[in-house]
Amino acid sequence: MLIRPERPDDVDAIDRLTIAAFEPQWFSDGSEAPILRALRASGELTISLVAEDDGDVIGHVAFSPVTIDGSHDGWFGLGPISVRLDRQRQGVGRALVAEGLRRLRDRGARGCALIGDPDIYGRMGFTGDGSLTHGELDPSAVQHVAFSGPSPRGEVHFAPAFDDAGH
Fold first, then answer.
1. What rounded mean pLDDT belongs to the chain?
2. What are the residues facing 52 on neighbouring strands?
3. C-alpha dihedral (101, 102, 108, 114), degrees to nearest 10
4. CA atoms of 84 and 86, how far apart (whole Å)
5. 163: Cβ–Cβ under 8 A, 6 or more apart, which residues?
6. What is the reported pLDDT for 167?
7. I want to staple 162 with a disulfide (CB 3.0 to 4.6 A). Which of 21, 73, 106, 158 is the partner?
8. Which residues pair with 112 in a beta bridge?
């Protein structure tokens, strides 16, 4: 498996992968692929990595800027992340996240936030300690990992593409 930045010729495969990976999920509203398209169009897709195996895109992860209490301050959001259904639970997603976080650190980012299952992302170093909030969501699902400086406190807002696509 090779993890690399997305290329223009990956976009359709990423779109199909994202739709297929999120379609069976109870929490999905179908906006994940449109979010990725909107992030690309707005220039806010800071890091976009694919996992490739035998020439096939089997996973994808996106990172984009977030604000915390109205300030960007070097923080990024993780997501959407998708892995082909037949390759889930094989470490593809974990490898994509680890490489994305490494690249964010190398860029001088202060940290990364996400909304997700604490049981999954806690194993990757994220914490949902209540210091970040997002609307009415359970604070344990609003997670972060700090690379430098103190952990942030406040309301996290993802790139406008998330709101524009129905989130």
1. 92
2. 2, 57
3. 0
4. 6
5. none
6. 42
7. 158
8. 76, 145
The token pair that represents 139 in the structure block: 């604070």
Question: pTM of the prediction?
Answer: 0.93
Enumerate domains of the chain plus CATH numbers. Answer: 2-164 (3.40.630.30)
- Coil, strand or helix: which one is 91? coil
Tell me the HSE value of 145 on the side-chain side, using a 13 A CA sphere: 18
Distance CA 149, CA 91 (A): 29
3-state secondary structure at position 49: strand
Q: How far is Cα 118 from Cα 136, in angstroms, rounded to an integer?
A: 17
State phi, psi for 4 to the nearest 5 degrees. -150, 165
Q: Cα angle at 15 between 66 and 116, to 5 degrees?
A: 40
Alpha-carbon distance 108 to 69, whole Å?
Answer: 20
Q: Please choose, from the candidates 146, 140, 93, the residue with its C-alpha nearest in 3D space to the C-alpha of residue 118.
A: 140
